[in-house]
Amino acid sequence: SKTLNAGNMESLIECPSEADAKKCPLLGPADTEDRLCQLAGTKKRKKVISWPFALRRTSTSGDSPGQLDSGLKITLFGQPLAIICGEDDTLPQPVQDLLTILYMKGPSTEGIFRKAANEKARKELKEDLNKGGNVDLESKAVHLLAVVLKDFLRNIPSKLLSDDLYDKWMLALEKPSKQEKIEELKEVADKLPRPNLVLLKQLLSVLHHISQNADTSRMDANNLAICVGPNMLSPGTGSMLPLEVQKEMNDK
């Protein structure tokens, strides 16, 4: 995770220029201009999936067990991204809004993703989002939004970077040269489910933008990796590892 957020991982995503970033900060299928329009209460052009979401299935056969059950509602937290994303892999609107606000306000917020938030407020906001409530995220404290986003990442089954790919991520970082690391990491990223890759690109765009303003946020790539990384990938083992091994994994 540290490498993902460091300079030698920048080629994994197309980081926008400073001028372009202001126009369209987030990458992927989500239209950031529309996200900003939604936050401002103006008319949007892009259709987004409603919330709460009906369970999305792939089959259209009437008697198939994969048929869409429009009456079954699910929560936002703790679900595979493939379940809660739109048919075109559009991220859930609350997640898009969290990313957009953190892109705009994160760089000017000291200790973003590091400082804790009020635990009661975190639980209440998480509950409201799970219920599909109409939540005014812009009115919430920025640190609270960062903590809730980390909570969302932590509760993705098998994690955003996929526990099944853990060994491949680690092996990629053992390549001798920077360019070989980059190429290998890109190959591993291509093995992620499409919704995971969409969220990864947008999240890295936000983290990169914050790290570029580390003089204000006090959060460079290393600090962001320490605070966010453990929520993105884990060994997926239930056994306790020796402290030295844990440290080596955390460094990677």
Report on this model:
This protein is mainly alpha-helical. It is built from 13 helices and two strands. The chain has a two-stranded antiparallel ribbon. Helix 3 (32-40) crosses helix 5 and helix 5 (93-105) packs parallel to helix 10 (194-211). Residues 1-71 have low confidence and may be disordered.
Question: What attributes does this structure have?
Answer:
3% strand; globular; 252 residues; mainly alpha; two-stranded antiparallel ribbon
Brief summary of the model shown:
With 252 residues, the protein is an all-alpha fold. The protein contains 13 helices and two strands.
Question: Could you give the distance between the termini?
Answer: 6 Å
Structural class: mainly alpha
Number of alpha- plus pi-helical segments = 13
The global form is globular
| Major β-sheet profile | 2 strands, antiparallel
What is the percentage of strand-forming residues?
Answer: under 5%
Strand arrangement within the widest β-sheet reads 1-2
Order of helices and strands: HHHEEHHHHHHHHHH
Rg from C-alpha positions? Answer: 18 Å
Average residue-wise pLDDT: 78
